[in-house]
Design goal:
17 helices; Growth Hormone, Chain: A
Length: about 400
């Protein structure tokens, strides 16, 4: 699995840097609120604008990549992230930061969907092995992000934004020189393709499951810094523990559980465990020790879920992997964009427990949707070799032209 072409490693490195951007911002949510006199719900819009734009923009990633090629799409996405993060760091109002985070979301959409498809298409071995490599990059990036964000946030809340911009510039240089030129697709993707892909009940069911799961995930990520009421460094260390747990289970634990119990049974138990964790946070919201422990424990379940859901998406429908990724990401990100804002509003207007109860209910509903989708996911545990899939897709494209 680890013997891969340099193109795969180039994109994987860029993924590490890209996913650092998620954790870098989390430790500074409360400092931003304090310095800019903003409420929890206003600050949570940093996640909402980011995910809403990213979700909608996922619909155009395939269109862009099929016309200008994956490498140019990756570089365009990185350039947009550099601009969005840098401008957010120079902003003086919460509205400006929210707006530049939306631009950042556009860049992430162009980069992430194309990066996953590029790794899966370029890697040697099976789909599962390629996705584990992608999740390893994701896990490493998320693990380092909160730690760096906490350290930079101690200096200034602007520091993590400038840090992301600088690291993205490094990722852009690496991608330029290490990723070979990639040709345009034989058939240009249209805006309608992701919606056609969602006609497959397996893919649609997995996408809705991910939407509901992300509702709980982003409630935890965006709201918990407020009841914790700690400094940027302390919150960064807690979320560093969360991300290390996430990285470990996504790369080491998830494949073993999948091999022994199967993908869907493992996901169902995992979603129920995540539901229970959020319920404990709802009951013990005022206990900082319990909250901190639950954050780290949740990382264990999130890592398993990320790996197995991503692999399931790649196999759930007989469509091109880039199209499947775009369709799935559109549903989960655009829908889950509501979660951070709603969590802030519920915390302000109801009580600090309610956001976690809502998040737990959403994840439980996700388990129910996945159980109903199970009959449409038969055969996803078959070991598919990437070379064989690529050959099949080439035949399909040839027959369509």
């Amino acid at each position: 699995m680890w013997r891969q072409p340099k193109a795969v490693w180039a994109v994987a490195f860029a993924c590490v840097v890209a996913f650092m951007g998620i954790g870098l911002v989390d430790p500074i949510l409360k400092p931003i609120a304090e310095n800019l006199d903003a409420s929890a719900s206003q600050v949570s819009l940093l996640f909402t604008s980011y995910m809403a734009v990213m979700g909608v923009a996922m619909l155009i990633t395939g269109v862009v990549a099929s016309r200008i090629g994956p490498k140019r799409t990756l570089l365009l996405g990185l350039a947009v992230i550099i601009a969005g993060a840098g401008l957010a760091g120079m902003s003086d109002t919460i509205s400006e930061i929210v707006g530049w985070r939306a631009l950042w979301g556009l860049g992430n959409a162009l980069f992430i969907a194309t990066a996953l498809a590029t790794i899966v298409n370029s890697a040697r071995g099976s789909v599962a092995q390629a996705i584990i490599l992608y999740e390893a990059a994701l896990g490493l990036g998320i693990a380092v992000g909160p730690l760096v964000g906490g350290l930079l946030g101690e200096i200034s809340w602007r520091g993590p934004f400038f840090g992301v911009s600088a690291l993205m510039a490094l990722a852009l240089v690496v991608t330029v020189f290490l990723l070979p030129s990639t040709p345009r697709a034989a058939r240009a993707t249209t805006l309608a393709d992701p919606f056609r892909a969602l006609r497959h009940r397996g893919l649609l069911g997995v996408a809705v499951t991910a939407l509901l799961y992300n509702f709980g995930f982003f409630t935890l990520l965006a709201f918990t810094p407020f009841p914790l009421d700690m400094g940027a460094r302390e919150i960064g260390l807690i979320f560093f523990g969360w991300s290390v747990a996430l990285a470990f289970t996504s790369v080491v634990v998830a494949p073993r559980l999948q091999l022994r119990f199967g993908t869907v049974p493992t996901l169902l138990v995992n979603l129920l465990a995540m539901t229970a964790t959020l319920a404990v946070m709802a009951v013990e919201t005022q206990n900082k020790g319990v909250l901190a422990t639950c954050i780290v424990v949740a990382g264990l379940f999130i890592g398993i879920n990320n790996t197995l859901i991503t692999e399931t998406v790649m196999k759930a429908a007989p469509v091109e992997r880039g199209v499947a990724s775009a369709a799935y990401s559109f549903v989960r990100f655009s829908g889950a964009a509501l979660a951070p804002w709603l969590a802030g509003v519920l915390g302000e207007q109801v009580n600090m427990h309610m956001p976690y109860w809502v998040g737990a209910t959403a994840v439980l509903l996700g388990a129910g949707v996945l159980a109903l989708t199970w009959p449409h996911l038969r055969g996803i545990d078959a070991d598919e070799e990437l070379d064989e899939i690529a050959e099949a897709e080439a035949i399909t494209v040839g027959s369509d032209s």
